[in-house]
Design goal:
heterodimer, A: 566 residues, alpha/beta, Rossmann fold, eight-stranded mixed sheet, six-stranded mixed sheet, 19 helices, 22 strands, B: 308 residues, mainly alpha, MetI-like fold, 2 domains, 13 helices, 79% helix
Chain lengths: 566, 308
């Protein structure tokens, strides 16, 4: 097999303070035509830097050494890279929402390189753009060319970006986490598209990801990276069947799996603590003053008659894609949002009826943990102040609060010595532990955790999930766990409610909902979730078909405790 | 788009409305009897005359009646008459306003032509000595008060070198005041441009454009400059308002015959009708310019133009 790209001993470093920080340390790899080559690693592994160095997109101060031969040309050479870039090597990025220029039409952005670099005529370039948009599954391509990025959804934008990268028929495509920002059903479509493009055009694909499921789904060969170094390089079958390095093994072991059923102990479920009774919430998105029509279309029904319960010592997972209303439901339960109709009762009290000191007491009883531990901690508060603050608000004396803060810090697995430190000195996982300690500070009985592990690496995710489970058991908390990730839900939840467009479409025990799902949408979510096992790859792609818009409204009990919308 | 513009116009109308109230109250905010103060410097005004003037100006009425009378006259294009000379205030202002607008626009051009490229250059070379040097100059530029910069420019270019006239009202006379007013705004523009462009340079779509193989100059021109300009346009509207304010000082230094100079004279002479008219005119001009720039903003940004 002739190699399309061979990288030998790639080093990338940037000046850091007085010294130099090495970001990529001696990476070698080879990619053949028609091959899907995955680079997998956690944050800080240097996987994106490796890709960017091939494209000449590193920050100006970065220094590279080694060779990256493509057609006998060294891509690391600054002058060469610019001419090859875009023509023979294309790249797509993680964030389709920001990767397109908001003020230029799709057509302009798709054709500009072909016109100004490859010298194609405007007419030919547009023709080709229409062809490509068609081939990546965008309807009415000719009309779409005249539209702007904000008129496309995230998944559609990623399709546009893929089509854009294909304009010059690259022989190598680098995709840097192309599906990380997308919903799981859209992810599976995009991965499918990329795969079919590789098969059809025989280009090489370097796919960078942190997701072992994506690797198993897509890769021919895999390179595992950690802290800038290559840990292991193997075919996908070998890596998953017999990883040789401890880090690869640990990484694979940490991946939550939807296809492996774990026997869980029955939770010690107490009284029902949270009762949500038919809550609805509509967001007005930009009321239009001078038009009569569209008024209804402009508002989004975030919650539509949602009912659920959570008991002491129980984990209820709320699952859904972006825009399903799951976070809105969480905020309504935490009393951070006024619902239009319906009632949220915590321990029998309607939270909307409270005010003054009763409201404050009730607030202390329900705490939230947010997705992004980088923005949920005040950077000007020390960790100790952050954790002690809820107690001080509740009237605990400061010295007592600080003493309890240090105990809480200890409980979430951080050293008491860190009390005086500030958030920027902590990693993402440590910050999330601090956020958990803060949530526990007011001694709540209900915790709403909104995607608490989505911003974390998979190995850290496993630790945080374990911690949450242990705390739930210890304090018999009612835990509402909001997530888009079914595998994580399977690991942590006792019961699951699946949300779509503001409605619950299916709910029941984890076994019922995930192993014998009855609703088409739940089945679609399960089928779309990448399975971290290359052996199970083949049978999946065929099962996914678009879902019709359901008009179903009424939940029916199909077996004890298992409700499905009909 | 239409909704966006209508919203801006409504905001502008509100601003002008509030200004009319403040302008009416202005006379009463000054301690003492306004008519007494206005006529303090005049010779031979008897108590009867003062009483007549008071009635004439409607100052013997309750404030809200005064306000309605003011609005009524305003709607007929009557801003009152100057106390000294008795000319219609509107005529006096309209006669001088073009000079001030000319000065402000010229200064704006100086500020844009100098400030934008420097800011862009600094952004492109961010965190290098070029950036540091440019931004150092910019801070100095912002820190220098108009009156001092004006005097320096006068001293070197008019007195020492004799290249430009000291004062007067021809085009050659416009150069020094326009630069005085423009340079410090150029410094502000340079800083704003720099931060706006740095924001854009770090956007993902710039990486996408580079990854497509576009030449760097094209990426900078089409992708960076175009997007980076959008927030700057709004800032220019605000800056224009400040520039109109700065014109008051600069016009006095260079004896430029604009409304700013007129206003200062009126303040010294306690000529309230002129001061009121001046404030109102300023408000209208500033509101008008910012509506125009907001419309331009909407045209440049498809997210607003095509509504989302």
């Amino acid at each position: 097999m002739t190699m399309l790209l061979s990288v030998t001993d790639l080093h990338v470093s940037i000046p850091f303070g007085r010294g130099v920080q090495t970001l990529v340390d001696g990476v070698s790899l080879e990619v053949a035509a028609g091959e899907i080559f995955c680079i997998v690693g956690e944050s800080g592994s240097g996987k994106s830097i490796t890709a960017k160095s091939l494209m000449g997109l590193l920050p100006r101060l970065a220094r590279t050494s080694g060779t990256a031969l493509f057609d006998g040309v060294n891509l690391l050479d600054k002058d060469v890279a610019t001419s090859v870039r875009g023509r023979d090597v294309g790249m797509i990025f993680q964030e389709p929402m920001t990767a397109l220029n908001p003020v230029l039409t799709i057509g302009c952005q798709m054709t500009e390189a072909a016109i100004s670099v490859a010298g194609m005529s405007k007419h030919d370039a547009q023709h080709r753009a229409i062809e490509l948009l068609d081939s990546v599954g965008i309807n009415q391509a000719a009309k779409r060319l005249r539209q702007y990025p904000h008129e496309f959804s995230g998944g559609m934008r990623q399709r546009v970006l893929i089509a854009m990268a294909m304009m010059n028929e690259p022989r190598l495509l680098i995709a840097d986490e192309p599906t990380t920002a997308l919903d799981v059903t859209v992810q599976s479509q995009i991965l499918h598209l990329l795969k079919s493009l590789v098969r059809r055009t025989n280009m090489g694909l370097i796919l960078i990801t942190h997701d072992m499921g994506v690797v198993a789904e897509m890769a021919d060969r895999v390179l595992v990276m950690q802290r800038g170094k290559v840990v292991e390089s193997a075919t996908v079958e070998t890596l998953f069947a017999a990883p040789t390095q401890p880090y690869s093994r640990a990484l694979l072991a940490a991946v939550p799996r939807l296809d492996v059923i774990e026997q869980k102990e029955q939770p010690a479920v107490g009284n029902t603590l949270v009762v949500v009774d038919r809550i609805s919430k509509r967001f007005e998105t930009g009321r239009r003053w001078f038009t009569r029509q569209k008024d209804v279309l402009e508002s989004a029904q975030a919650l539509d008659n949602v009912s659920l319960t959570v008991a002491e010592g129980e984990v209820l997972a709320l699952v859904g894609e972006s825009g399903s209303g799951k976070s809105t439901a969480g905020r309504a339960i935490a009393n951070l949002l006024k619902v239009d109709s319906g009632v949220v009762r915590i321990a029998g009290t309607d939270v909307a009826s409270l005010s003054g000191s009763a409201l404050r007491t009730s607030r202390a009883q329900t705490q939230m943990i947010f997705q992004d531990p980088y923005s949920s901690l005040d950077p000007r508060f020390s960790i100790g102040q952050t954790i002690a603050e809820p107690m001080i608000i509740q009237g605990v004396e400061k010295s007592v609060a600080m003493r309890q803060a240090s105990q809480l810090l200890d409980r979430v697995g951080l050293s008491k010595q860190l009390l005086d430190r500030y958030p920027h000195e902590f990693s993402g996982g440590q910050r999330q532990r601090v956020a958990i300690a803060r949530a526990l500070a007011s001694n709540p009985s209900v915790i709403v955790a909104d995607e608490p592990t989505s911003a974390l690496d998979v190995s850290i995710q496993a630790q945080i999930l374990d911690l949450l489970l242990a705390l739930k058991k210890e304090r018999s908390l009612a835990l509402l766990f909001i997530s888009h990730d079914l595998a994580v839900v399977q690991q942590i939840a006792d019961r699951v409610a699946v949300m779509r467009r503001g409605k619950i479409v299916e709910s029941g025990s984890v076994q019922n909902v995930l192993q014998s799902s009855r609703h088409a949408y739940t089945q679609l979510l399960i089928a779309s979730a990448p399975v971290p096992d290359p052996a199970k790859r083949a049978k999946k792609m065929t099962t996914i078909s678009p879902l019709p818009d359901g008009a179903e409204d009424i939940l029916q009990e199909v077996s004890p405790g298992h409700w499905v919308a009909r | 788009m239409l909704r966006f513009i209508v919203g801006k116009v409504a905001m502008g109308a509100l601003t002008v409305f509030v200004t009319t109230i403040l302008v009416t109250l202005l006379i009463h905010l000054v301690p003492g009897d306004p008519v007494q103060i206005m006529y303090a410097q005049s010779q031979g005004s008897t108590p009867e005359q003062i009483e007549a003037v008071r009635r004439n100006l409607g100052l013997d009425q309750p404030i809200y009646i005064q306000y309605f009378q003011y609005i009524e006259r305003l709607s007929q294009g009557d801003l009152g008459h100057t106390i000294r000379g008795g000319q219609p205030v509107l005529d006096v202002i309209l006669q001088r306003l073009p000079n001030t607008l000319l000065l402000a626009v010229a200064a704006m051009i100086v500020a844009i032509v100098i400030g934008l490229p420097l800011g862009f250059l600094a952004a492109y070379h961010r965190n290098t000595y070029i950036d540091t040097a440019l931004m150092g100059i910019a801070i100095a530029g912002i820190s220098i008060p108009h009156f001092w910069l004006g005097l320096l420019l006068l001293f070197f270019f008019a007195v020492q070198l004799g290249w430009l006239p000291v004062s007067g009202s021809g085009l050659a006379n416009l150069v020094l005041p326009a630069f005085t007013l423009g340079l410090s705004n150029a410094a502000i523009f340079a800083r704003l441009t720099r931060s706006s462009m740095i924001d854009v340079l770090e956007q993902d779509f710039v990486q996408t454009a580079l990854a497509k193989g576009l030449p760097r100059t094209l990426v900078l021109r089409r992708h960076v400059l175009r997007v980076g300009m959008i927030p700057l346009i709004t800032m220019m509207g605000l800056q224009f308002a400040f520039m109109m304010g700065g014109a008051i000082v600069v016009e006095n230094i260079f004896s430029w015959n604009g409304v700013g100079r007129m206003a200062v004279e009126a303040i010294f002479q306690r000529d309230y009708p002129i001061i009121q008219g001046f404030i109102l005119t300023f408000a209208v001009v500033v509101v008008f310019v910012s509506i125009a720039l907001d419309a331009l903003y909407a045209v440049m940004d498809p997210r607003i133009r095509r509504g989302s």
